[in-house]
Amino acid sequence: MATDLQRRKYEKAFDRFDVNRDGVLQRNDITATAKIWCETFDVRPESEEGNRITGLADKLWDDILAATDTDQGGTVSKDEWTTAMERPDFVEKVALPFALAVFDIADSDNSGRLSVNEMIAAQSRSGISEDETRRMFDALDADSDGEVHRDEYAAAIREFYLSDDPNAVGNLMVGDLS
What we know:
Recoverin, domain 1, single chain, two-stranded antiparallel ribbon, 4% strand, two-stranded antiparallel sheet, 8 helices
């Protein structure tokens, strides 16, 4: 059973994916999310990277639907979503690969690291303010080298979904939870 903190995190993540704000997730929400990432980072949809993010978005939707759509209605409610988020296998097989694909697109120089400006560009399209993103960036930059490494980002994604520690750095991944 999800704690109150986990439920708030899962609901905030759901709201970020619910692009058309109709209270349910549908395939078009996920494909719109992928399109937003491609537009943000000037990735042409027909390019190798564009095909990768589109393919991962399709896989994300198929996996979300298979793992969450308990009523077989073809859409995912916030309750169905929250229940699925509690499963570590869902995080490893679905949420993390998509998050890392977004990281890779934001990593415009393919260095395996994000600058604060790359992270701001990525998060601003998701509705996270620049101030929230800077706090997130500073917390994720565990070694204080001025960059967020791919492994630091992956650890934060896992922590976001799986931790109920109110002080966990991963809690910042969707912005302010209050």
